[in-house]
Amino acid sequence: MLDLDPEKLPQHVAIIMDGNGRWAKRRGLPRFYGHREGVKTAKRIITKACEIPIPVLTLYAFSRENWNRPAREVAALMDLLRAYLREELPVMLEKGIRFRVIGERERFPEDIQALIRDCEEKTASGTRMTLVLALSYGGRAEIARAARLISQAVKAGDLEPEEVTPEVFRNYLYTADLPDPDLLIRTSGEQRISNFLLYQCAYTEFYFTPVLWPDFSEEEFLKALKEYQGRERRFGRV
Ligand code: IPE
Ligand code: IPE
Ligand code: MG
Questions:
Q1: Which of 15, 16, 17, 22 to mutate to test ligand 1, by most ligand atoms within 8 A of the CB atom?
Q2: What pLDDT, on a 0 to 100 scale, did the predictor assign at position 2?
Q3: Does the annotation mark 18 as catalytic?
Q4: Is there a domain that residue 114 lies in?
Q5: Is 149 domain-assigned?
Q6: Helix spans in 96-173 (H)
Q7: Residue 160, pLDDT above cutoff 80
Q8: Which residue, among 171, 175, 142, 147, has the nearest Cα to 161 in the 3D structure?
Q9: Which residues line ligand 1 (CB under 6 A)?
Q10: Residue-range definition of the domain harbouring residue 123
Q11: What is the reported pLDDT for 104?
């Protein structure tokens, strides 16, 4: 087992959970089976992150662009999300997880919105780990939204244009109260950010693995964390 240095644990790990479709295709199965398996992986990684513990874990579950997938696939993903939120609330409560959603939640069916609200409210006092699910999330839309909110604040006279610094700007992002990710993991071999946490990843360490998300084990997760601990972060200094 890989030993982690408890002094150098990332405060926030973000994961682009990619490769479900290819996992299923390789087995000659419809893409849905890959997504179903991917949910199981997410549960295992959440449990592991809780044990370590990683204070904040953000999972990219559905992008804004993912609405453009075939209606059948979108519907299947909605069913999985619905089931996940229903089943996991007691688990989150038991583990001390604080649950949060970032993204355009208003685009989801009303019953899913209600489940999200319920999970957020009931887990609000969880202190072990914050689990953030990015749903209908897009980094550019988040930045545009922040600009919109700032314009409204300026127009209302609550903020001066000169006061809009990077530190103030970040207060208008969904992640205002969370630290920036220290480590971003992407599975499936793709080496791109796909509109995820664009503002927040300014100094994030990236880790890419060819492993498809359904095959991403606790060991693979520890491997990524171990590699992170060996990186030298300079933040522009020498
Ligand atoms: C990630 O797996 C899950 C979502 C984007 C919802 P994909 O469905 O993108 O799987 P691939 O990339 O087609 O293999
Ligand atoms: C990114 O994966 C979104 C999620 C994992 C939810 P995609 O599969 O949608 O990204 P692209 O299309 O390969 O960039
Ligand atoms: Mg993909």
A1: 22
A2: 76
A3: yes
A4: yes
A5: no
A6: 110-122, 139-155, 166-170
A7: yes
A8: 147
A9: 17-22, 62, 66, 77, 188
A10: 10-138+180-227
A11: 98
